[in-house]
Amino acid sequence: MELLAFGKTGWGDELFYATLMTVAVSITAMLVGFFFALIFTPLKLSKYKTLNLVGNFYTTVIRGVPELLVIYLFFFGGSGAIMYVASIFGYFEYIEINAFITGSMAIGIISGAYSTEVFRGAIQSIDKGQFEAARVLGINKFGQFYKIILPQMLRFAIPNLSNVWQITLKDTSLISVTGLVEIMRQSYIAAGSTRDPLFFYSFAAILYLLLTYVSMKLINKLEVKYSRGY
Amino acid sequence: MITSFPKLIGATVVTLKLLSASLFFGLFLGLFFAILRLNKNIFINKFAYGYSYIFRGTPLLVQIFIIYFGLGQIEYLRSTFLWVILKEPYWCAIIAFTLNTGAYTSEILRSAFQTIKPGIIEAGKSLGISSKIIFYKIQIPIAIRQSLPAYGNEIILMMKGTSLASTVTLMDLTGVAKYIISTTFKPIEVFIVAGGIYLFMTFIIHNLIKYLEKKYSFQQ
Predict the structure, then answer these.
(1) Per the CB 3.0–4.6 Å rule, which of A69, A112, B13, B162 could disulfide with A33?
(2) Is residue B78's pLDDT more than 80?
(3) Does the beta carbon of A219 lie under 8 angstroms from any beta carbon of chain B?
(4) Residue B55 forms part of a structural domain
(5) Is the pLDDT of residue A195 over 50?
(6) Chain B residue with the nearest C-alpha to that of A183
(7) B153 — contact with chain A (CB < 8 Å)?
(8) Contact with chain A for residue B50, Cβ under 8 A
């Protein structure tokens, strides 16, 4: 147990901060994903074929390609792409992007594809009459979405979003290949310097189980809240 | 872009080998644990639930690392014949993938068994068919049909999962893609080719499952 002691003698505090980092990356990635879902869900539901195609292209490609490959694309291609954009504006210095930003962008784009599918399904499961009734009552488009569609949609979306959250949380372990110090990377470092990989990787597994367990409990509460009246 | 293509195609074979081996073993493991889950004994039941909970609740990367780096640490294992298997990254990857897909498959099959209407089993009993034959000839075929769509998703997820084999020094499609990216610094081109191969495999699996679903559907 002294391996897990806090302070200079053990790895307790390092692993604790690493866990916070995993949570931070997961939440950022989830929010980035929502942002992408906000753009691509309307595209997938649009009347126009071309917009549908763009939406479908995004979700199909991202869900059909391994997460690790997407992360490598961002890790190796990210700073190159930013530098290219900067060079247009006349800035030629080397730009290095933070591993946190690359990681949460890469995972965010992946989780966005899953969120898009969830939101599309949830919106389609709302009765058509609701849209028509809102229009008949003369509620403007903004109010229609925020006051009528969104609250009903969340009831359908939350169970599936909780799956997306679990996938996102587990995918963050892959960012360790880029060197961001989250649970997996920290265990790798600790395992390397103590030569005790079995202990540290098992401990990492327990930390992930703990995170999924706690988040499931919290999400269940949300689920109860949004299914009031049913 | 063109020069990297043959290398990536060669690596696809490794990916496909990993995928087919782990799916093959994983299916049996999944079926075994699904049957345990349906057992009335609370200990057997809890054991099977614990297995699927642990393997579904932790990242696949952790599982591979525990098996590849962790198990080698146990002195006793090094002296047994298991060491012949466990020192090879290829077999470690297959063991990790099998255990992982087994957990997901057991959940898929369990829910498929539970959706079988009791009337069908009762009908079998009243026809005087023994419960063993009811299980093999009635319950399993229905469960397979029920679980096809979910299992198709699992195959695609597993195909993406095999990319993690590259973290334990195996040169699968993602491993070779990463190697080419880091030597040529052309991430986008390589991503397009490797991603295209993965998408092509997804497309084939998707259509195969669709075909099977149609073939084995109840309503003609």
Answers:
(1) A112
(2) no
(3) no
(4) yes
(5) yes
(6) B62
(7) no
(8) no
- C-alpha–C-alpha distance, residues B191 and B169, integer Å: 20
Four-residue CA torsion sign, A122, A128, A132, A133: negative
A217 and chain B: CB distance < 8 Å anywhere?
no
Chains A, B: CB pairs < 8 Å? 112
Give the residue on A whose Cα is nearest the Cα of B60: A170
A170 and B188 within 8 Å at the Cβ level: the answer is no
For residue B220, pLDDT beyond 50? no
The residues near A143 (Cβ < 8 Å, ≥ 6 apart) are A134
**Closest Cα in chain B to A60:** B199
Residue A142 has pLDDT above 90, yes or no: no
Distance from CA of B163 to the nearest CA of A (A): 6
Instruction: Kindly report each contact of residues B121-125 with a partner whose C-beta sits within 8 Å and lies 24 or more positions away, as own/partner.
Output: none
How many domains does the structure of chain A reveal? 1
pLDDT digits over B35-56, tens only?
Answer: 899 888 899 999 999 999 999 9
Asked if residue B91 belongs to a domain, the reply is: yes
- A184-to-A9, A208, A230, B66, B106 alpha-carbon distances in Å: 20, 10, 41, 11, 27
Confidence (pTM): 0.86
For residue A186, give how far its alpha carbon lies from the nearest alpha carbon of chain B (Å): 12
More confident residue, A89 or B157: B157
CB contact, 8 Å: B19 with chain A? no
Structural domains counted in chain B: 1
Q: Is A216 on the interface with B (CB under 8 A)?
A: no
Average pLDDT over residues B56-73: 90
A65, A170, A184 member nearest B195 (Cβ): A65
Q: Where are the alpha helices (DSSP H) in B130-219?
A: 131-133, 140-161, 173-184, 187-215
CA distance readout (Å), A106 to A112, A113, A121, A189, A207: 10, 11, 24, 23, 23
| Inside any domain, residue B220 | no
Q: What is the pLDDT of residues A44-53, one digit of tens each?
A: 988 899 999 9
Instruction: Tell whether ipTM is more than 0.90.
Output: no
- CATH number, residue A93: 1.10.3720.10
Q: How confident is the model at residue A110 (pLDDT cuts 50, 70, 90)?
A: very high
